[in-house]
Amino acid sequence: MASVGRTLTHFYSEPPQGTQIVDVRIKAIDELQRLSREYRDRTLGPDWFKQMREMYDLSDVETSSPSFRPRIRVPQLQVLLLSEATDLSDNTPRVYIVDKRDGKRDEARERAFQEHWREGFVNEELLYSQLYALFGGLGYIQVGFDPRGRDGRGEVWAHHRDPATVFPDPAAKNDRDWSYVIIEDRLYPGQVAWLYPETGRDIEARGTAPAAPPTIPGINPADTGYGFELPAGPMSYGALGVRRAPTGDGRVVVRTTFLLDSTVDVIEREVGSDAAKRVSRLVVPKYPNGRMVVDCEGRVLADGPNPVPKGWFPLIRVLGLPTLGKFYPPPPARFTYDLQLLAQRMLTQTFENAVRLNNGIWFIHASTGITAEDFGGLPAEVRIINPNSQVPQCVWPNPMPEYMTQLPALLLQLQKELQGFTPTRAGEPGAGNISPDLFEASVFRSQTLTRLRGRLFARSVQQLAEMMFYMMARFYVHDQEFYSLSEKFEQHSWKAVGEEAMGSYRIQVDPASIRPLSQAGLRNLVPQLRELGLIDAKRALQLLELPGAEEMAEEIKNERLLAALSAVRERRR
Questions:
Q1: SS3 for 213?
Q2: What single string gives the DSSP state of each residue in 236-304?
Q3: Boundary residue ending a domain (342, 370, 395)
């Protein structure tokens, strides 16, 4: 997209005389958001993220017609993707901070950064972003600064964000070449006034609650959708007609737009001697670090330079699959969701056949003297029939073919394999005698999709670590103290960096600390490394994830010292 900055200032001409005047900046942002929304709908489909949430919450409705079939849900895909997200976000990234002025690691700053990462529950936020990426295609991590955090000392935070509230540049291929991005938040007017006390006062929500649904005798309107809905029972189903629209909750939409703005300032000054004075014109960018515009309900709340260092926008994209020349990747959940729906429908049909169609039918000959009205067919029922008459007979239908009951399980097994959850990954060895080394190698090779996502995830975590460091360097103008409580109580100090020294540091995340590993293989490897003397007792206990590893290592060290002293005393005797 051409100059976005020029778009904001010259996108619209002056409105005709007599029409309501609307801020040109808001009109331009409306158009940019429309372009982004249309591109997303063309790529993923309309309301894709809403459908994704309904699928995850098990609240989606497959049919709106009456049915005798009780719906059977098999949330296998949800469980598989939850397991995948847990494996990807289970490790804690190891961040290295290098001072380029002397080429040495700043270990004190590294420890403070790691504790800040732990205190902010950044790993948990990465887990949520992975869930969005696996179900919806991509997720976001947003970095910001709260000046009221940490008891007024300020806090840099990292939170996941719903991708439905993000509107990126449709011409962008990734989150480093975009020209603009728009973020939507829904806040109460009081929150807006609290965040923007000068420009956010007197804002009111324009949305109103929808009209009340029509009253139907015998049905509570509060329990139904918008339209007619049958009461609970075997004939219950989703509401017919239009559903109830969400009622107004008094909140307003606050948009924050980050963009690269080409607006310039012209500085004029007189130069030269008194006899030959001339005017020198210097053209400088007005927003060299980018521009940030915040608006709400047709009012601009803030307009100024982008506060994020290095001209970055405060969003980091997390991918579930690689992209091919576009911003949105294909959602992994969409690959096999049709298989799960088909398996659920077949299980529903199987249940109906077993309960409703496979009932036995009684045949009673007229000579027995028994009528259909007084025959109950109850177990151990005693009846008297006429002499020489036929005994009532219960006839059962032929059972369904066995493959009909096995087909849903085969469909779900196919889904597991397509999502990368093969029997080998589940710990089921193949046929024949397999050595532990070969079995671990087969498990590693079965995690192809997980390792692929681990590579994509490593880049996102690298970007997140860099952005958090530079935000801390810019906004932590005073020293900060962080405390370690995992092994033993320690205090770590973050020394203020200053904006002028931010470029002197290089941030690097160890890819091995993000790469998903086989925990069983790692536990088998630790004793071998310990036996070869490649790691000490403390590191071995930490890799085994034993609680109190540091205290246990210290006790082992003390025991060895006592044993060595005892041996020395024995030799002296």
A1: coil
A2: --SPSSPPPPPPP-S-EEEEEEEE----EEEEEEEES-STT-EEEEEEEES-TT-EEEEEETTEEEEEE
A3: 395
Select from 11, 48, 2 the least CA-distant residue to 31: 11
Q: What is the identity of the amino acid at 532?
A: L
Instruction: Give, in degrees to the nearest 5, the angle at Cα 11 between 7 and 15.
Output: 160
Identify the CA nearest to 494 among candidates 512, 510, 482, 507.
482
Q: Where are the alpha helices (DSSP H) in 426-548?
A: 436-445, 448-475, 519-531, 537-543
Six-digit token string for 425? 């990954």
Q: What is the dihedral of CA 14, 20, 24, 30, to 10 degrees?
A: -120
What b/e readout covers 316-355, taking b as 16+ CB neighbours within 10 angstroms? bbbbbbebeeebbbbbbbbebbebbbebbbbbbbbebbee
Count of structural domains, the chain: 2
Find the domain containing 540 and state its range: 525-573
Residue 556 CA neighbour count, 13 Å, CB half: 12
Q: What type of residue sits at position 263?
A: T
Residue at 152 is within a domain:
no
Residue 13 CB coordination number (10 Å): 7
Question: What is the Cα–Cα distance from 399 to 351, expressed in whole angstroms?
Answer: 13
Domain-located, residue 61: no
- Decide if 479 is inside a domain: no
Indicate the burial class of 35 (C-beta count within 10 angstroms; 0-12, 13-18, 19 or more): middle
| One-letter amino acid of 95 | V
| pLDDT of amino acid 137 | 92
- Nearest Cα residue to 199 out of 189, 185, 187: 189
Taking a C-beta distance cutoff of 8 angstroms, is the pair 49, 138 a contact?
Answer: no
End-of-domain residue from the set 375, 395, 415: 395
- In this structure, is the dihedral angle defined by the CA atoms of residues 415, 418, 419 and 421, taken in order, positive or negative? positive
- 497 and 112 in contact (C-beta within 8 Å)? no
Residue 21, domain member (yes or no): no
Burial grade of 164 (CB within 10 A; 0-12, 13-18, 19 or more): middle
Query: How many angstroms separate the CA atoms of 33 and 166, rounded?
Result: 9
d(CA 101, CA 99): 5
Q: What is the mean pLDDT of each run of 10 residues along the chain (573 residues)?
A: 48 48 85 94 91 84 55 87 86 85 86 89 92 93 90 89 94 91 94 91 67 43 38 40 53 94 80 69 85 93 92 94 91 91 85 72 85 78 86 80 79 86 64 56 66 87 92 87 70 80 85 63 64 72 64 75 80 74
pLDDT recorded at residue 235: 40
